[in-house]
Amino acid sequence: MKYIVIGLGNFGLSLAEKLTKLGNEVIGIDNSMAKVEAVKEKISHSIRMDATDEYTMSGLPFKDTDVVIIAIGEDTGANIMATAMVKKLHPNRIISRAITPIHETILEAMDVETIIHPEEESAERWAKKLSLKGMVDSFELSINYSIVEIAIPDKLVGKTIEGAGFRNNYNLVCVSIIKKIAEKNLFGKTKRINKIQGVVTTDTVLESADILVIYGENEDIKKFIKEN
């Protein structure tokens, strides 16, 4: 089979090497020339490339590739952007690496078929969860912008996305909604799992116990949490 592995850090490099040893053709992509040079004798092909640049990415042989793996782990923003880019260019199977549960939620909303998450939860993310009341999870896309999961405030229950005024009142974008669904495991015990609802519309109604997934500037997010 033919694979493209984007991101040649410890995880991506190890995966690319193992796939190659199993007889597969592997193209390794990274924006670091040092990493590309280090792996060029260990896999089929290695290319220095910015995976968030559509022009350069469009030159890859996606039509002849069975699986594309986005293994970027150091930069979640780049991971999401690269995943979106591959979704646009590659019609076959996509696997993406999730660093945190909220990162996994976003990948699920993007209809990524398979998600892998080798890392443990970070201390920074837990610090945010404990410091800001109502915040369920979060990660930073950059110094100033984040995507966060927030429990729906009581005063917004029953309102639509448009009626809640995320954009007009808070300068925020509601990306999706997570619902807690009851599910029984193999032993018959009921557990609550998160189920992503996909991309919301302006007339989506907010319900009690739902979790908002919102995107915006960190200061605007903090303002929203404090006011609600």
UniProtKB/TrEMBL annotation:
GO annotation terms (biological process): potassium ion transport
Membrane-traversing stretches: none
One Pfam family it belongs to: TrkA_N
PROSITE patterns: RCK_N
Domain RCK N-terminal, chain residue ranges per copy: 1-116
Highest taxon of source: Bacteria
InterPro entries for this protein: NAD(P)-bd_dom_sf, RCK_C_sf, RCK_N, Trk_Ktr_HKT_K-transport
Name of protein: Ktr system potassium uptake protein A
